[in-house]
Amino acid sequence: MHTVYKALSEADVQRIVALCRKYSVKNGGVFEIYSQGQTDAFTVIVNTCKGKQNNPRVPVGIFYINHVSPGIVSLEDEDPKYDAVEAASGHVQTLKRIIDLLVEDKDSKLDFTNLEIEKGRSAL
Predict the structure, then answer these.
(1) 3-class secondary structure, 14
(2) Where is pLDDT greater, at 82 or 43?
(3) What is the pLDDT of residue 120?
(4) pTM score above 0.85
(5) What's the N-to-C CA distance of the chain in angstroms?
(6) Cα–Cα nearest to 92, from 60, 49, 121, 120
(7) Rounded to whole angstroms, how far apart are CA atoms 112 and 4?
(8) Is 42 helix (H, G, I), strand (E, B) or coil?
């Protein structure tokens, strides 16, 4: 089940998708973006940044664009009974901060290296 996080214009959705592609893992960024066939629905996986010691990337979480309806950015419902990791809600808060950065940014240089997962977890 998805929880609606933001409602955006089509122009904002297209800009966010373009930013996620620009800052994709293959381009040295943190995003993996997948489209759902011929639709305009996208699944975006947010990964950690590679650390100074070349640590492997680890998924922070997933958000969805246009899955619920056009212009809607959604997240998986939080289920405290399902999430075995105490910091799971911290990951949701981090995803929300990343989405907010994408919405607010007009393509200046996005830098996710200093974002930290809430509850004192390590930086992205």
Answers:
(1) helix
(2) 43
(3) 43
(4) no
(5) 26
(6) 60
(7) 23
(8) strand
